[in-house]
Design brief:
Blueprint lengths: L1 E6 L4 E6 L7 H8 L8 E8 L5 H16 L3 E5 L3 H10 L1 H4 L1 E2 L1
Helix pairs in contact: 1-2
């Protein structure tokens, strides 16, 4: 898995490439959660992430909780159909802002 960070005046974008699973979720957690300490809007781009496991979903839930506690916005973008199906099945479509 690779994480590329981009910053604009409006938000921080983390672009994920590869599988988000129990092996790679800790790296995403380490990269994603600290962003809410300084950014008002953090977006996770999953365009190149074909798979998200329960460990990955846990990190996304942690990110949403941290965003709320910091009064920030967290969005998830560009989900492939397979990952969108996982989000629908688990109810994450109603828990996260998906763009």
């Amino acid at each position: 898995m690779e994480i590329v960070r981009e910053q604009t005046d409006e938000k921080v974008v983390l672009r994920l490439s590869g599988w988000l699973n129990n092996t790679t979720a800790p790296a995403l957690q380490d990269a994603l959660l600290p962003e809410f300490d300084n950014a008002a809007h953090v977006e996770l781009d999953l365009k190149k992430a074909p798979y998200v496991s329960s460990a990955g979903l846990r990190v996304l839930l942690m990110a949403e909780k941290k965003a709320v506690s910091k009064h920030a916005e967290f969005t998830v973008a560009n989900l492939c159909p397979e990952v969108m199906e996982v989000f629908k099945t688990t109810g994450f479509v109603s828990m996260l802002k998906i763009v």
